[in-house]
Design brief:
This protein has 110 residues and is of the alpha+beta class. It is built from 3 helices and 5 strands; from the N terminus they run ββαββαβα. The radius of gyration is 13 Å and the shape is globular.
């Protein structure tokens, strides 16, 4: 497995860090952790537009982690690594994922 860090395309925040087999699998695992199953994923050939639901996926070292994915320091730390994919997602319940995101941000878990 590879360790991936995801930046949310809309907010620019670190959305999650997980071990997965592929970039799309990493996105699926992060969304499931946030209580957002049922989305479909597609790797894009170019970066997503600013309003598309997508993740910018970076390959990071096995021991990589961040405490607060909303800080510029954390975002810069992710972006210092190799960008491996842009993964667009469709479907799901945006209200549920927003509530889960707020809970994760409140206790600094990613």
């Amino acid at each position: 497995m590879t360790r991936y860090a995801l930046l949310d395309n809309n907010s620019g925040l670190v959305w999650g860090i997980v071990d997965a087999n592929t970039p799309a699998d990493a996105c699926r695992r992060v969304d499931e952790d946030f209580g957002e199953p049922g989305r479909t994923y597609m790797e894009l050939l170019t970066r997503a537009g600013s309003t598309e639901g997508a993740y910018e996926v970076y390959e990071v070292p096995a021991d990589f982690d961040v405490r607060d994915g909303a800080t510029q320091e954390a975002i810069d730390a992710v972006m210092a690594h190799r960008h491996v994919a842009t993964v667009r997602y469709d479907g799901g319940d945006d209200e549920a994922i927003n509530a889960a995101c707020e809970a994760h941000m409140a206790d600094n878990t990613f």
